[in-house]
Design goal:
heterodimer, A: about 200 residues, alpha/beta, Rossmann fold, five-stranded parallel sheet, B: about 220 residues, mainly alpha
Chain lengths: ~200, ~220
């Protein structure tokens, strides 16, 4: 369970949000909404442990955030974390091993198929389009179903209609399996979940 | 923990193999700098022999500074650094792997290329061996301290020049004792003390450099 209390963040001396208290249980979906510059990404990065909150605490299963939390959390930010020199497959297997996810070659191939980029597996990332880059960075998701907490920053950006459907399916499956999902998005993509929370930032 | 080290180091090598230009640039810069000095100061053999070690060491220092801004820049820009920070792997191990990668791709090639400069300057064979030994002990220090400088100037506008200003003063002891070892042996003094001090500096920087780099990376990505 992810809980925050009294969470506040500042950027460049400007208070973005304060007193954010939320609690997310298994199967729960949390959408962060708000206009540009209201702190959606900052809140997500704070939950990922990248940005230090100005005030407040984040707790995971009742404990302060630590290395154990990082093993149970998956964060995908704006940048796709792909190296132009490496192939899609090499990039993906690096990302998986970095996050301690063991996956067989067959499982990795299936994941690429699920994102519709199996035929790009041996192509250097340099030749990918924006949407294909996004798909390549999201290819970790089918292999990370066992990681309870997913934090996704604008995951639908740059994806086409078919890509959005595939990602929504993955998110639904993750939530159905007892996972938790926090995402920032301007699009209202339908994701089925037992509990759907929403935080509106700004004002 | 060793897995994370091997994982990051292997990736550094893989990327370098596909961008050989980066490694070659540094190496060619080192050799060109070494070749320019005699044109400036004149071809007097005794004078050249006396300054050979200093030139080789200065070239190595400048080549290292030239390569440092790239150390984290690409990983920062494409989001890999972010993933490294949120990953369960200890950041210190990842930074050490980056240091090892930097040394293998700059320090080691520079050390291996040093005989080219040594021979150009007519350095005797035993002094040449000592130059290589001092570079072998000293160039890892450049990578270890350089990684902290690279992390501190990450995302700063004009970071390259700032990095040079920040890190070159820290390299002074390495330059003094590294070049000093060779000069000492040329004048008949036992260079052991110089090399020991260089080794001590390596021991201290292997702790201080990565530690400072980790702290700086967390701040840079905040």
């Amino acid at each position: 369970m992810l809980e925050t209390s009294g969470l506040a963040c500042e950027r460049g001396g400007l208070r973005l949000f304060s007193d954010i208290a939320l609690s997310l249980r298994p199967g729960g979906l949390l959408r962060l909404r708000g206009a540009n510059g209201t702190g959606k990404t900052t809140l997500l990065r704070t939950l990922a442990g990248l940005t230090r909150p100005a005030e407040g605490t984040i707790r995971w299963n009742g404990r302060e955030v630590d290395a154990d939390y990082r093993r149970q959390m998956l964060f995908i930010g704006h940048a796709p974390a792909l190296k132009d020199e490496l192939t899609v497959l090499e990039n993906l297997s690096f990302a998986l091993r970095l996050s301690d996810v063991a996956a067989t070659a067959a499982a990795i191939e299936r994941a690429l198929e699920q994102l519709g980029i199996a035929r790009l597996a041996n192509l250097p990332a340099r030749y990918l389009s924006q949407g294909q880059r996004r798909r390549a960075s999201l290819a970790r998701l089918p292999l990370s179903m066992h990681i309870p907490l997913w934090l996704l920053d604008e995951p639908f950006a740059a994806l086409d209609v078919e890509g959005i459907d595939r990602l929504a399916e993955l998110c639904t499956a993750h939530l159905a399996g007892g996972g938790m999902l926090v995402l920032t998005s301007h699009q209202d993509v339908v994701i089925d979940s037992a509990v759907a929370l929403s935080v509106a930032l700004g004002n | 923990m060793l897995d994370a080290f091997a994982l990051v180091l292997r990736r550094e090598m893989q990327i370098a193999l596909r961008r050989k230009g980066d490694v070659l640039n540094v190496l060619v810069f080192f050799i060109v700098v070494g070749s320019l000095f005699p044109l400036g100061v004149g071809p007097e053999p005794n004078q050249l022999r006396a300054m050979a070690a200093g030139v080789a060491w200065l070239g190595a220092l400048l080549a290292a500074v030239l390569s440092l801004p790239r150390l984290f820049a690409a990983d920062h820009a494409d989001g890999t650094l972010e993933q490294m920070l949120v990953s369960p792997q200890p950041l210190g191990v990842i930074v050490l792997a980056k240091v090892a990668g930097h040394w293998l791709l700059t320090g080691l090639p520079l050390t291996l290329a040093a005989p080219i400069i040594g021979l150009q300057y007519g350095l005797p064979l035993d002094a040449l061996g000592l130059l290589i030994a001092s570079l072998l002990i000293g160039t890892p220090v450049l990578s270890l301290l350089g990684v902290a400088g690279a992390a501190l100037t990450l995302g700063v506008r004009g970071g390259g020049a700032l990095l040079a200003l920040l890190i070159l003063p820290l390299f002074v002891p390495v330059l003094v004792f590294g070049a000093g070892a060779v000069t000492a042996s040329l004048t008949g003094i036992n260079p052991g003390a110089h090399l020991s001090l260089l080794g001590a500096f390596l021991a201290v920087s292997s702790f201080v450099g990565p530690w400072a780099a980790c702290a700086a990376l967390r701040v840079a990505l905040d």
